[in-house]
Design goal:
InterPro entries: 6PGD_dom2, RedAm-like_C. It holds the Pfam family RedAm-like_C. The chain has a single domain, classed as N-(1-d-carboxylethyl)-l-norvaline Dehydrogenase, domain 2 (Orthogonal Bundle). It has 5 helices and no strands. It is about 75% helix and about 0% strand. It is globular. α1 crosses α2 and α3 runs antiparallel to α4.
Length: about 130
């Protein structure tokens, strides 16, 4: 079990680092210094928005309960599309938001349209089938 936990935490580390690095590249396209963005992203956004939300909603993952009260998967696909377009417009690598959008679109296709973004957990629990 320790090896699985370690692998899961490494997965989270790389996903978090890539999210931060990609977001920093996006604002850098407008000459925003990384240190300036890091203060907002790491010192405010992560603990206030991300950390609190994940801790609070983790029990919903266990129950498969993803109410769309504060935003649906459709809304999130629109946001991911906006992020992708902005990356293209700013000349920033756009594969990461495209992948996130594709995963959200798969969740919609599997019936989670009116659920919140945490419903992608159901997609992540399934093996990826390559064609």
């Amino acid at each position: 079990m320790a090896v699985l936990y370690n692998t899961a935490l490494l997965d989270m580390m790389y996903a978090t680092m890539n999210g931060f690095l990609h977001a920093t590249a996006l604002v850098a396209s407008a000459n925003v210094p990384a240190a300036q963005f890091a203060d907002l992203a790491i010192n405010w956004f992560m603990p206030t928005v991300v950390d609190a939300t994940l801790v609070e909603q983790a029990p919903d993952l266990d129950r498969g309960h993803y109410p769309g009260d504060f935003g649906t998967m459709e809304m999130n696909v629109n946001a991911l599309d906006h992020i992708t377009r902005t990356c293209v417009e700013q000349g920033v690598h756009s594969d990461q938001p495209r992948l996130m959008k594709a995963i959200a679109e798969r969740a919609i296709a599997e019936g989670f349209s009116g659920k919140n973004y945490l419903a992608v957990f159901e997609i992540f629990k399934k093996a990826t089938h390559r064609s």
